[in-house]
Amino acid sequence: MSITLYALDGCPWCEKVHDALEDADIEYETVWTEALHSKRDEVARVSGQRGVPVLVDDERGVTMNESANILEYVERTLA
């Protein structure tokens, strides 16, 4: 799978990204992260920071955070 979303259960920004991906009928994998920032080592490894959501598009070589940026990317590039 070329699209991976790192998300936290119950995070409203993560849910917005999930909804946008679903609405655009984009296949993706979700990696659920720990609630504690200090435990988000995998998120830090892929994005250089520990906040979520983080979207990784392996096919295009794109890794991004911030839900507004991700939503724009989904609309302009993936949808």
Automatic annotation (TrEMBL):
<dbReference type="InterPro" id="IPR011767">
    <property type="entry name" value="GLR_AS"/>
</dbReference>
<dbReference type="Pfam" id="PF13417">
    <property type="entry name" value="GST_N_3"/>
</dbReference>
<dbReference type="InterPro" id="IPR004045">
    <property type="entry name" value="Glutathione_S-Trfase_N"/>
</dbReference>
<protein>
    <submittedName>
        <fullName>Glutaredoxin</fullName>
    </submittedName>
</protein>
<feature type="domain" description="GST N-terminal">
    <location>
        <begin position="1"/>
        <end position="79"/>
    </location>
</feature>
<dbReference type="InterPro" id="IPR036249">
    <property type="entry name" value="Thioredoxin-like_sf"/>
</dbReference>
